[in-house]
Protein 1
Amino acid sequence: MEEVKARRTRRTEKAEATRRRVLDAAVRLFVERGYHSTTIESIADAADVSVETIYKRFGSKAGMLKAARDAAVADAPEPDEFFSFPAPPIEEALRSSTDQQVLLRSLAEFSSRRLERLAPFHRMLRSAGTGDPELGDFIAADHTARRERQRANIATIAAHGPLHLPADEAGDTYAALANPDVYLLLTDQFGWTPERFRAWLIDTSARLLLLLDDQ
């Protein structure tokens, strides 16, 4: 029985190592060559696996991009260099205080670190565009899910007192500030550092959303 469990464990570990190797190769090639210029065959060669293995595991090139994003968001235990630092659990942070300024600062710090972590992924999405229907559906769903998450986060903060805006409008305002396109504009095009973006998001979201004494 123990030998059977050991074999299963080895198979699981081998499968996970293969998955990570394929995703690492896919991310690197997407960054280096662009999404549309990267073929399934080139990813298979870089990962030293068969094309059939990739199709069986991920279904398509868009499937690999989505899996890479999910791995980054999940803070995999052995992240590659593109997604290399963890983000704190925001749910725990939002339960730790009733002070709206503390809560919004915790949320803004979390959002900025996640945006920094996922910046390579969002650059890939920008280069990929929406020519692939499967990828277009994923991008639309990602926007919707992000808006819903931020509305829920701001609603948690609004439960501890009134905001400068109605809760849904405040949620959309924050979702617009903590948006990948805004992050990439300010860091890639305007030359801001991640630290400057973080400070800006903390300050701007507080001024727009909270009833501060100096307003």
Protein 2
Amino acid sequence: MRDTVYAPGVAARSERPANDRTLLGSVRNAARVLRTFSSTDQALGVAEVARRLDLSKSTAHRLLATLEAERLLEQDPDTNKYRLGLALYELGSAVTEHIDLHAAALPVLTTLRHRTGEMVHVAVLDGLEVVYVERLESNYLLPIFRQVGHRLPAHWTSSGKALLANLPRDDLLRRLEGAQLRIRTPHTIHTVEALLVELDKSAKRGWASNIEEGHLGISSVGAPMRGADGSAIAAVSVVGSSTRIKQNMASYAALAVEAAAVIGRRLGYRPTAMSRGRRP
């Protein structure tokens, strides 16, 4: 059961526009509107935005109304002026979280790689895919593609299964409803029912495994890391040849769990008695 390496969108993300003809003028104008706001200009009206950006009032009004509909701006009902909306705060928090994750994870990953000698990753969940956001190579040459930004179906990977296992049950079932699980190797879990059984097992023991489910000869173990609010925001995985992973699975899993816990604490997670051993 052969398949191509699954990396949707990688080429698109790597290409840069050759010239301005590839850019959308409306999106650029919307970005210009957002950048018009500042700490000293927190509230602006239609006429002022139009003047500053050399737009017609009708164009400025449409842009402001659209951005308000997307919660990027909000309008004061008393003054009719606009200010930055909560959705921008949420996006900014996501960027800050990623930067914090990099700073918190890198020294811990370095130690984990040193202790195992294997390739180590940090991945986040996006729908039913994992995206690798941190990666440290091992001394072993592994025939796999795992650059930062690479995506894989979550059910192929230990990181993905660790994160799926820690979703609230209703969220998990909603994501899996009608899902077609792609088969990569003879060992790939390919039914939702079998995946749910595997995820329950992973949730109980606190880590997940991948035994040649995404690539023959390659296996891994992964553990979820929690953010300040206690939710699983990413996963740490140790990846290596199936022979080494199987021989060292218990110790590698314990090290992955420990590394995920250390990174979580660096991000502000403080487990309580109730949250220890919590099931989704």
Protein 3
Amino acid sequence: MLDPASLLQTATQAARLGGDILMRYYLDGVAIRDKSAIGGKSYDLVSDADIESENAIASFLRSVYPDHELLGEESLSNGCTDAEHLWIIDPLDGTNNFAHKVPQFAVSIAYYHHGKPIASVVLNPARDEWFTATRGGGAFHNSRKVSVSDDPTLSQSLLGCGFYYDRGPMMRRTLAAIDDFFGQDIHGIRRFGAAAIDLCYVGCGQFGGFFEYKLAPWDFAAGRLFVEEAGGKISDANGSELTINPSSVVASNGKLHEAMIEITSKRQGW
């Protein structure tokens, strides 16, 4: 297996390339287009920033590791998920925030070896905020080692959540789960709109846990390793191990995981 530190260095360089592109568009303006329309209204957005960022990241990674597979949100969605060497890329997580000038968005890059995360970077370029992790090497926020919270119960925790683009049954299941969590007297719940960063907030101990009922692999690939290396736990909403496929996601400090799964599993289902 390749050296995790070298992989992280490559991922960091690639993330910086993508982040610089995002910030140029963020500051200068960019046309936003609709990926899909639901009921005549469009919620799933894409821009030239996403595409240019992904192209730059992909080009750089291929120059360093020409024999590796790439999987990404825009033009790389047909990547081989069972490849020995796989880079999973989200060139712009939080496109709706980006489109509305909310500085909560990220470049997310992870390297997987035989389906296991080995190195990852999540960068919020608007704040020059870095979340990095290597398997066995810990999780770091701006070079400072971090760990999950010590919250022992839901009643002592702040949670994060996300909503998929669906405005029908999945949205109602999410809202029902939120209601169940409030029934456990949580301190509160936050929806910031960039799952990669939300997962890192779990690793940093800011959120006791996070859940979302449908995420693509590029949404959680990097954040998954960050949570694990910070001492937390991550699974699907039924408590099963994540794969490199679209999935529900529940992340926690570990102590809250069973209680979270008890709630999220009741509302699971696409």
Protein 4
Amino acid sequence: MSGEGLAVIGALGLARLSARGWVPDLVGGMTLGADPIAYAIAAAARAAGRPLDAFTVRKQAKAHGTGKRIEGCFRPDAAIVVVEDVITTGQSAAEAIAAVTAEGGRVLGVLAVVDREEGGRAALEAAGHAVEVLVTATELGVR
């Protein structure tokens, strides 16, 4: 969540979306891990003159306030990339995908900063979701 980290991740994330050919309207995922990633990518897009907004998915809808599970700039029929800080089992991304599609979003794929290489990416891909990662645990030398 450092300013420097947000600048780096935002720029790298935006570049990877472009390289993959994904042109989302929105980026977001499960709070709390996905929040800084989504906001950083949206800010990098804004700086580049490109429209791209962010949203967050709560673990469950709150009983007060808006009562929504998805907060932020979400809208039905939007093209969406679900973002993650790390992929381990893939469960968090799968929950975000389920929430987004239940509300009418069209998921293009999943973008994660780190793939821990513990089966999550394979599980998401087996479920039919394209996955892009910035770096793997092996590349970081921690596996």
